[in-house]
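FIELD: query
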Amino acid sequence: MNRLTTLERAYELARTGPCVNVDEIRAQLKRERFEAVDGHLHGSMITGQLRALCRAKRAVVPARRAGD
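FIELD: result
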């Protein structure tokens, strides 16, 4: 199995992972030992797309109610 590129994994984390913002995505990628994380996630286009994916993911995940 081929390992995902840094950007592929960043988008995967934004869409389906536990990360809720770009800083958390960066930290997770570094924990997973991806290379040149800051360089790959530097541009405003990429960070904007990742932020939008994180927001969209939060919008479809129901909030927990007190007592759940």
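FIELD: remark
The chain has four helices and no strands.
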